[in-house]
Amino acid sequence: MTNLLTTGATQAPADHATALERIRHLEALLGDPDDPDNPLGLRAVLAADERGELLPEGERALAGFGLGAEFVPAALGGRFERADRFSLLMRSLFRRDCSLGIGHGVTSFIAGLPVWADGSAEQRRRAAELLCGGGRIVAAYTELDHGSDFARVSLAARPAPGGYLLDGGKQLVNNIGRAEAAVLFARTDDRPGSRSHSHLLVDLDALPAARVDRSARYTTSGVRGCLLGGVGFDDCPVPAGALLGQEGGAMETVLKVFQVTRCVLPGMVVGVGDGQLRAVLDFTGERRLYGGPVSALPLTRSVLTDAFVDLLICDALSMVAARSLHLLPEEASVRSAAVKYLVPKLLQDNSYRLGVLLGARSYVREGPYAAFQKAARDLPVVALAHASGAVCLSNIVPQLPRLAERAWRPALDRAPCAPAVPETLFRLHDPLPELDFTWLELSTRGADSLAGHLPALADELDREAAHRPAVAELARLADAFTAELADLTRRAGALSPRDRTPVAGRRAFLLAERYAHLLAAAACLGVWRAAGPGDPFLADPLWVTAALRRLAEHLGPSRDPLPESDVDALYEELAGRHRTARTFDLFRTGLATRAPSAKEVDS
Length: 603
What we know:
The protein is α+β, with helices and mostly antiparallel strands. The chain folds into three domains: 126 residues, Butyryl-Coa Dehydrogenase, subunit A, domain 1; 111 residues, Butyryl-CoA Dehydrogenase, subunit A, domain 2 (Beta Barrel); 319 residues, Butyryl-CoA Dehydrogenase, subunit A, domain 3. The chain contains 19 helices and ten strands.
């Protein structure tokens, strides 16, 4: 078994290790998922889920790895340098267990962002030391009475001598019962408006026990091991030094830093789709029907390759979005909402279709395919966490008319002022500048170099298709998406005043959906175009042509299926990765596997 726990080598990777080296270290630490003796394998994960607890061995291993340091900027002594690499590292954990990914990871990452953005030097130092030392900070935003409507959050922080008095509560807060600190989103002004709430960084262990109750626990159908709880405050005093940034500034900070989480979280969850596809590949290869394996049936291969292509789409969009936080932070407000909407949707749709292939086994909670049903239960919870699809679309809708006027129309007219996109945005291994929170904006102000890149890409492909038949179909699809952008530009410009607000009608939300698909198409084309000869699969037009076909299916009622030869070629790539234990994303990362026995080697 390849698992560092068996040798006791659970120490954190050296600080000078690169992000990719740390990903390989984490994969080795997690070990072979199918080894029944692996304390971090799927058998152990499923048993912990049945008990409704986080896998204890997993928490100990991740603490030894020093996962908390991954949430802290390198300038503060941590390891966070690149949003795209961080998303990839956490993808390894989500591939194994969503509960561990959230319960021992994402919560503290989300909570740290307001501190890095607004905190004083002392607050940042304390938070960084806590996380690097294996402690936990929770992000306490949710109140069940108000859902995602943060403007109505009612936890009050009233001025008092020496600080504030907290009165009210928060619900569905992960790890609230065992965290050392919390970032509270609290009302500091009774007047309505965007300046009524503030962030407080609170030392939970220092609060008077009689004034705080952290005993509530909520059970859920998915991520059952996560310790989702509640906290209630009864005139609980906190010092004035708990205030993060300026009083009344929390709403603006939330709208900015959540752009980071909306870009990186979907990339992590791609690992869940990878695990589900892996389980169904096992089943269709072992199950026999009509004298051969189920995987040989044309419909089965179509479903499997569609799921594979969708994972590539999700990865391209999430990686480009994560890289744009560094390269085009002023455009992140709309792009982050699009990726947070589309990636979970594609993954959940695939979960359903793959479940149909798996049949009754898709809801059985034991046996060789039990991990599939756990992932199917986890995915909706993870997709809803932090921001629902409707909330994300409502962030896009008000920006559509300005995007149409300032970015898309000039690009469609091939105007000299059309937005330019940096080529390094698509080169997934190129270095990135430091992520600077001060460059994040509440609105793009009409800037959108990614979607605006579609017409230029289509023109390039049209010229290339004349002497390269292999890209003729891709050129046709690129032209179709450019026409789609032109239609979206016209419709967005014609929206009524009411349909330019978050309370718009269905038509405006459908336009926002279409826009998310156009961004995905532009991301896929850009990644393919930037791929070098060192990655033959990524440089091959096969996958990106299939990706644009898949996206086109979502935009129209007609289906233009892939030629059977393309399906077979994609399936061979997928099956080859499965045999050699490599991921189904753009990176083809090697996975930990059990060393074969002498008998298996001989056979």
